[in-house]
Amino acid sequence: MSSPATPRKTKLPFGSFLERILSKLGLRGRTLVIAIPTLWLFVFFLVPFLVVAKISLSEAMIARPPYSSIWNWDDGVLNLTLNFGNYLFLLEDTLYFAAYMESVKIAFVSTVFALLIGFPMAYTIARSPDSRRNILLMLVILPFWTSFLLRVYAWIGFLKTNGLINAFLLATGIIDEPLIMLQTDFAVYVGIVYTYLPFMILPLYANLVKLDDALLEAASDLGAKPAMTFLTVTLPLAVPGIIAGSMLVFIPAIGEFVIPALLGGPDTLMIGSVLWNEFFSNRDWPVASAVALVMLAVLVVPIMILRKAQAASEGASQ
Amino acid sequence: MSETQTNIAARPWADKDATPFIRIKNVTKKFGEFVAVENVSLDIYRGELFCLLGGSGSGKSTLLRMMSGFETLTSGSIEIDGQDMAGVAPYDRQTNMMFQSYALFPHMSVEKNIAYGLKRERIAKAEIKQRVEEIISMVQLDQFATRMPHQLSGGQRQRVALARALVKKPKLLLLDEPMGALDKKLREETQFELINIQESLGVTFVVVTHDQEEAMTLSTRIGVMTDGEIVQVGEPREIYEYPRSRFVADFIGSVNMFEGQVKEDADDHVIISSPDAGADIYVAHGVSCTLGQKIAVAVRPEKIQLSKARPNNARNILKGKVDEIAYLGNLSVYQLLLETGKRVRVTQSNLSRVGDDAITYEDEVFMSWSGGAGVVLQS
Ligand SMILES: Nc1ncnc2c1ncn2[C@@H]1O[C@H](COP(=O)(O)OP(=O)(O)O)[C@@H](O)[C@H]1O
Ligand SMILES: [Mg+2]
Q1: What ipTM was predicted for this assembly?
Q2: What residues pack around ion ligand 2 (CB closer than 5 A)?
Q3: d(C-alpha A265, C-alpha A279), whole Å
Q4: B12-249 has which CATH code?
Q5: Domain B254-377: what homologous superfamily?
Q6: What's the rounded Cα separation, in Å, for the pair B174 and B65?
Q7: What CA–CA distance (Å, rounded) separates A275 from A269?
């Protein structure tokens, strides 16, 4: 493991020149490979994060940009003003707590449904013959080729009072009056489950496709009926895939705002919409930033779970 | 055959009235148009250690998988212990299988793997625990009971797989290439262990293998398979000494094959004139054949004697030149070149250290064998 880390001698003069400079800076092959994504994360994640954190500690003003500066330089004195008022405000106004809870609930229920729908699909794809498998996987990914917004709008066409679903149910006589589906929580669930289903299916598929047929046969041979085989062999071995898929649905679903905005009703209260409103309607950037940071804190737990699951599945496949 | 029939109880297949434990009747298995097993009929008796021996793709595993219920029969029937197995699901069969890949559950410890099958039956916890412990000590895995499969060596995994199948006390244990993943030395040790376990438990074993030495070591009887068919069934000795076809003679051990025509056909012997050997070959047993029929004589390398001087009382004598010698320690293998251009393989055991008259390269030597050494093969 130690030899690949030492840089190889390159014949190119420029290469060796670059190498010498980099190694002066303490950067060698291995470090360099890690350095690039680290730099990427620094520029596109950590810096914006710090900016948002800074704004969340400032005060809203009618200005450009619409918030106060947290420090000023006055006659050789640096004044640092940290305003925690925005965070306290989030605690005072029950709207925010309610919105967080509602988001977690909607994300959780959507994740459960995505799992219930996605698991059989992933299982079927993983168990189909090679030739058909790629086509089925293509079908799962295909919706990504059209705009996400367009697909959500399409659901409006399905769900609205004089939409396709009601038309079908009325025509077949199953119902007498059209169902109110659009602008309800139900429509939000449909939208979120539909949108994030591929994120559930793909990691589950990647996990289930590795499942060795011989294990299922062995269970059957030892006296387990199919349902028992599923519970004692298939399911436990799919746990890393289930966790990964669930987190990939749960995490973005919490912050979702387009779907509740388009499909949800006035009662649908999700933290993403609240954030959007604070930012664009109220132009209260500091409160919006505080909302965003608290949301990030809420997401830390599921992100940790996801990381553990990924580490576990990598460990197991070795 | 010519062996004296000593112990009928230990050799139920020699008894015409014995009831077979497994009755495979005219079984055919097709995958689409491809015929993997073709019209196989076979009886296996209780307590046997029966080997299905054949090259890769000869249909051994498919036949085994039909006994365990993983493949359905295209036609024919399989009866185990008097019960027709058609439509009986694998989980309802009192057979257990040891998989070629072992198929240990990766998320369960050794103990849990072994207990898995017992938990599927309605057995009290205490009894499960006791039976698992017993079998674990039988396969000498006591220190490894709580390990996970990936923490075990190949040989240890193999024993877990064996224990997991045996703990259910099956009527029939099916083993698909049980030694396939072990190195040679471990394989030889394990073979004897397997025989001991089989004898002490009295369970009927059907073992699939492509290794003819393994089949010879393990089995009470061998069924030789090729292209989905069973071409010969018999005790190891019988298969080795009396192969019924060129394929079997060639597949089991090495053999010298002399092609020729029947020249003299008597009750107690035949003489074959063989252009291959450049001489007539005398075989001291009657053969139902016609004069002039094309036929082959198979002679095992260890049944041929070598000498520098012409032996004076041998039935068959050929002259040739030493082309190659391979010294293997306990024996030496000679490649001899006949005047006809045919190569003959002879093995001689090295009884003494190198003598003065040791046979060496380019020597002109005589090969001789008795009338009983050769076997006539018609197909
Ligand atoms: N499920 C299957 N589908 C199609 N062909 C198969 C299947 N299983 C086995 N075969 C074919 O049947 C033949 C015999 O296979 P197998 O019984 O596994 O041979 P062996 O165990 O003697 O090596 C092989 O040619 C194999 O390709
Ligand atoms: Mg096989």
Answers
A1: 0.85
A2: B 61
A3: 20
A4: 3.40.50.300
A5: Nucleic acid-binding proteins (2.40.50.140)
A6: 9
A7: 11
Query: Distance from the CA of B226 to the center of ligand 1, in angstroms?
Result: 12
Mutation probe of ligand 1 site: the residue of B53, B61, B65, B73 with most atoms within 8 A of C-beta:
B61
Alpha-carbon separation of residue B47 from B44, B170, B291 (angstroms)? 9, 12, 45
**B293 vs B299: CA distance, rounded Å:** 19
Residue length, chain B? 379
For residue A172, give both structure tokens. Answer: 């077949």
**Are the C-beta atoms of B144 and B158 separated by less than 8 Å?**
no
Residue B377 to residue B285: CA distance in whole angstroms: 12
Instruction: For residue B294, give the nearest of B269, B259, B245 by alpha carbon.
Output: B259
**Which structural domains are found in chain A, ordered by start?**
17-80 (no CATH), 85-317 (1.10.3720.10)
CB contact under 8 A, B99 and A217: yes
Which token pair is B18?
């014995």
State whether B105 and A224 contact (CB < 8 Å). no
Per residue in A281-318, pLDDT (tens digit) is 888 899 999 999 998 888 888 888 888 877 776 655 44
Average pLDDT score over residue span B92-104? 95
Contacts of A215 in chain B (CB under 8 A): 103, 105-106
User: Which residues in chain B are contacts of A235 at CB distance < 8 A?
Assistant: none
Q: Are strands B204-209 and B172-176 parallel, antiparallel or unpaired?
A: parallel
The pTM assigned to this predicted structure is 0.82
Question: Per-domain residue ranges for chain B?
Answer: 12-249, 254-377
Question: According to the model, what pLDDT value does residue A10 have?
Answer: 46
Task: Report whether A198 contacts A144 (CB < 8 A).
Answer: yes
In testing the pocket of ligand 1, which one of B27, B34, B207 has its CB within 8 Å of the most ligand atoms? B34
- Burial tier of A263 (Cβ tally within 10 Å: 0-12, 13-18, 19+): buried
